[in-house]
Automatic annotation (TrEMBL), chains A, B:
This is Catabolite control protein A. CDD domains: HTH_LacI, PBP1_CcpA. GO terms for molecular function: DNA-binding transcription factor activity; transcription cis-regulatory region binding. It comes from Brevibacillus laterosporus. Coiled coil: none annotated. It holds the Pfam family LacI. PROSITE patterns: HTH_LACI_1 (PS00356), HTH_LACI_2 (PS50932). NCBIfam families: ccpA (TIGR01481). Global transcriptional regulator of carbon catabolite repression (CCR) and carbon catabolite activation (CCA), which ensures optimal energy usage under diverse conditions. Residues 3-57 form the HTH lacI-type domain. Keywords: Activator, DNA-binding, Repressor, Transcription, Transcription regulation.
DNA sequence: CTGAAAGCGCTAACAT
DNA sequence: ATGTTAGCGCTTTCAG
């Protein structure tokens, strides 16, 4: 039988209200009384029941995190940022994988609401009407991390995906390339897939370069699809001399495809990836890539969520974190960068 | 004001006990009554309060997971295995990072117990008396994943670390190497550090090969330490011709150190890593490595935990999953393998 | 098969 | 500064 607050009260010769006060750090307790209670707690080995507290106070100090796949390097880095800040603010995390499946996402939202989480952190490519519907029935604060909803209704922390892709493409253009390929993410991912593709096209357009469908491949973000796509590009009569890949894994796959054909990177083909996962520094040539601050996105998103949960004033509901390009060895050196 | 079970009862014209029964799938409800209740639930958009349920039933269908660092590829893969099985058995996961810090581990155990988790899954290098002490005060089932305690008191799911290191070293010996180096993990990690080192030494001993301290480097599991350690080895008067690294990252660092000096892998130096993280297939040469089934370890550990939580009979409290060596391109081909 | 009622362990007014 | 009391929303005997 576990020790309850009532046992402590009896042991200390005070009421349970007083015990509750000292446990919760309420200053309205005489120091001597506090000490008596503390001693009793110590002696009995009392451990407050957070479930009972949650029921009575209607706050669980727990937040739900819905993530597509924790085993991906991108999301696990993000999750670490979330967790660190959560810990800092005394929250715990219920972590759920959605595999990008709408149905599962909705079901998870529901389960988390049943568990009375104080807030929700959502990662996932696409936000649909269904999500809003589920969320609306329980009005708990929700923040999107590394994504946004189309209408900007929900608070979100992410980077400017369009600009990032534009910058990467432009970097390749500046290096004098005329035939620049792209390996995109799935088009079902509005931001990581579609928007990056748009950024690529716009950069070509602005530079007066022709858009060539042959230089576009649809990838899955995975290594294998980069390998495959680049292999196909190389079979073209006029293969690309530079590639922008929407993920680092695909970029590395692309590099290997080039190398496997006996060519070299960056001499024959320059490659820029996206995200800057740890992997990018652990391959040769080391990968030049758009750095997306995953950890920070998670951390800032969690911090934002704490503000909503505490009813603090927040000025910007949508925060765009800065991105930049880290030039390493898969692109040639240029003086001005 | 959220809808409660009481509201549903009134709407359906039954008692709250009956509503509780249908919500919990209790068969002792007349089909017609069940339907009435279901309709009311639907109409009101009732969502059961899991916190209240937890308080009343003393079961939260939540398990605590203490992991050193979710952003590491090794642990995030493990976490995915845990989560998948947890979902399958209707449990949710509270995920916490310990950074291998004893103090934080103990504090997390405490927090999770306060939250009344039904079980605990623990990952971390070292299990000390303190852990048992904390755990003992609340008697909830605990399973270790990818580690074991020294005395085998706690249920655990892992591989035979000694044998794995022995096998890897032996594989190198069979290839005719006389000077085989090892890049170990930190010795503060009993299994991943110390035991693997022991396995290495035993393999040398059994093969009648001399043990040379110069061929031992203490790494941190990280890429950089592999790079560094191998760089040092290569400066030796008589450098090693083969290396076993206690992690894939270090193995890849070692490969790059060799390559950076203008030598090649596996021609000049053969390398075997440990774990088989996704990374191993995304480098050139692709890494030969001891495969540790991370996902399975997580999955089996979670499955085992569910058995304890349901008071099911379990035969083996310690389960050793099989390991094997995957030969790729960082070792030379051999006919018999 | 259904209902009534007693908690689960704690917080939060409200008194004193 | 401390105690009293009424819930929080649900499960679970125990009756009927």
């Amino acid at each position: 039988m576990p020790i309850t607050i009532y046992d402590v009260a009896r042991e200390a010769g005070v009421s349970m209200a007083t015990v509750s006060r000292v446990v919760n750090g309420n200053p309205n307790v005489k120091p001597l009384t506090r000490k008596k209670v503390m001693t009793a707690i110590e002696r009995l080995g009392y451990r407050p029941n957070a479930v009972a507290r949650g029921l009575a106070s209607k706050r669980t100090t727990t937040v739900g995190v819905i993530i597509p796949d924790i085993s991906s390097q991108f999301f696990s880095e993000l999750a670490r940022g979330i967790e660190d800040i959560a810990t800092m603010y005394k929250y715990n995390i219920i972590l759920c994988n959605s595999d990008h499946r709408l149905e599962k996402e909705l079901q998870l939202i529901n389960t988390l609401l049943e568990k009375q989480v104080d807030g929700l952190l959502f990662m996932g490519a696409e936000i649909k009407e269904d999500h809003f519907h589920s969320l609306k029935t329980a009005s708990i604060p929700t923040v999107l991390a590394a994504t946004r909803d189309p209408e900007g209704k929900l608070p979100a922390v992410t980077i400017d995906h369009f600009q990032a892709a534009y910058d990467a493409t432009q970097a390749l253009i500046r290096r004098g390339h005329k035939r620049i390929a792209i390996i995109t993410g799935p088009m079902s991912y509005p931001l990581e897939g579609l928007v990056r593709f748009e950024g690529y096209k716009k950069a070509l357009l602005d530079a007066g370069l022709p858009y060539d469908e042959q230089l576009v491949a649809n990838g899955s973000f995975r290594y294998e699809s980069g390998l495959q796509s680049m292999g196909d590009f190389m079979k073209l009569a006029e293969p690309p001399t530079a590639v922008f890949a929407a993920s680092d894994e695909m970029a590395i796959g692309a590099i290997h495809a080039v190398q496997d054909l006996g060519h070299s990177v960056p001499e024959d083909v320059e490659v820029i990836g996206h995200d800057n996962v740890r992997l990018a520094e652990m391959v040769r040539p080391r990968l030049s890539t758009v750095v997306q601050p995953m950890y920070d996105i998670g951390a800032v998103a969690m911090r934002l969520l704490t503000k909503y949960m505490n009813n603090e004033q927040v000025e910007d509901h949508i925060v765009l974190l800065p991105h930049r390009i880290e030039y390493r060895q898969s692109t040639k050196e240029m003086a001005e960068e």
